[in-house]
Amino acid sequence: MGTVLSLENTAADFERARPELAILPLAQHEPHGPHLPVGTDQIIVGALAARIAGRLDAAVFLLPVWPVGTSGPHRGQRGTLSLEAETLWAVVEDIAASLEAHGIRRLVVINGHGLPSGPTARPWGNPIVKTAVRQLNYEHPALTAIWLQPFALAGPALRGVFPADDLHAGDLETSVLLYLAPQLVRGPAWDFVPAQPPSYLEFAPFASLCPTGVWGWPSRASAEKGRLAVEAAVSASVDYINRTLEFLGQARPAERRDQHVDPA
Fold first, then answer.
1. Is 102 within the bounds of a domain?
2. Residue range(s) defining the domain that contains residue 81
3. Which residues have CB under 8 Å from 241's CB, separation 6+?
4. What is the mean pLDDT of the chain?
C-alpha cells in the first residue's frame, strides 16, 4: 500500500512524499429522518474515502470532506445547507487548480450519494459533479480527473442485501451508520416509501414526498449489513480507480500526460 497524507500532515511531509493523486470526498448537509444526523453523508463519504485511499498503491493526498453540496430538494428543511450548482462546480475546479499547481495531476472525486440500485454513470445528488469533472479534463490537459459513487459501483454485490426502493435514511444509510458511528443513531426509525417514483424529486420538494425525511426501510438496518456495504463499496471503488486511471494513462498521448505545469 502507498502513503496517505491528510490535513494532519505538514508541508514538509508533502514535500517528502510528493503525492501525485488526490481524493476529494463530496458530501451533502441535509436531514436524514428523525434517527440519523444531518451530517450522515459527510460521515459516510469520509470513512469510505479514507479506506479507499489506504488501499491504493500510491502516495495519496486525502482531502477533507467538502461538506455542502446541492441539496435543492431539501431546501427549507431545518438543518439543510445547500449550494448552487455553479458554486459547487467552481469549488471542484478551484481545488483541482490548487492541486495541479503543486504537481498533483490525478484527481478522484468521490460523490457521497449513490445507491446500489442506481446508475454508475449519473450522479445521485450533486449532479453537477459529472459536468465539473468532464470540463476539468477538457480544460486542463495535464490533469486526469474521474468521479465515482462507491455504493453504486458496489451494486452487483449489494442489490440482494438492500431493497431497490431504499433511497434516503433507510436500510443502507442506517446500517452504515450503525457500523461506523452507532452512538449517532437514534431510535426508533419508521419505514416509509411514498407512492410516487424517485423521478418526482426532479421537481417536488423532498418533504412533500417524505414528511419524516425517510425514503426506505431503516427498521431492517444492522451493523453487519453496514460492514458488508462499506467493504463492498471500498473494494469496488479501489478496483474502479485502478482500472480507470490505468486506461486513461494509456489512452492519453504521452506529451499530454507529461506536460509541465508551472506553479501559480
1. yes
2. 17-160+231-253
3. 52, 56, 108, 146, 148
4. 91
What are the pLDDT digits (tens) for 178-231? Answer: 999 999 999 888 999 999 998 898 889 989 999 989 999 999 999 999 999 999
- How far apart are alpha carbons 153 and 108 in whole angstroms? 14
* Residue 63 in domain: yes
Task: Count how many domains the chain has.
Answer: 1
> Given this model, what pLDDT does residue 77 score?
86
Q: Do the domain assignments include residue 115?
A: yes
DSSP string, 83-101: --HHHHHHHHHHHHHHHHH
Q: In the numeric block, which cell numbers belong to residue 77?
A: 428543511
Is residue 47 in a domain?
Answer: yes
AA identity, residue 15: E
Q: What is the CATH number of the domain that holds 47?
A: 3.40.50.10310
Rounded to the nearest 10°, the torsion over CA 184, 40, 187, 160 is -120
Q: How confident is the model at residue 252 (pLDDT cuts 50, 70, 90)?
A: low
Q: Which of 127-131, 148-152, 169-173, 214-218 has the lowest mean pLDDT?
A: 127-131
Alpha carbon dihedral 236, 238, 241, 244, in 10-degree steps, equals -60
Reduced to 3 states, what is the DSSP secondary structure of residue 76? coil
d(CA 25, CA 22): 10
Residues facing 146 on adjacent strands: 108
Q: How many CA atoms lie within 13 A of 239 on its CB side?
A: 9
The 10 Å Cβ neighbour count of residue 1 is 10
Q: Which candidate, 183, 184, 188, places its Cα nearest to that of 220?
A: 188
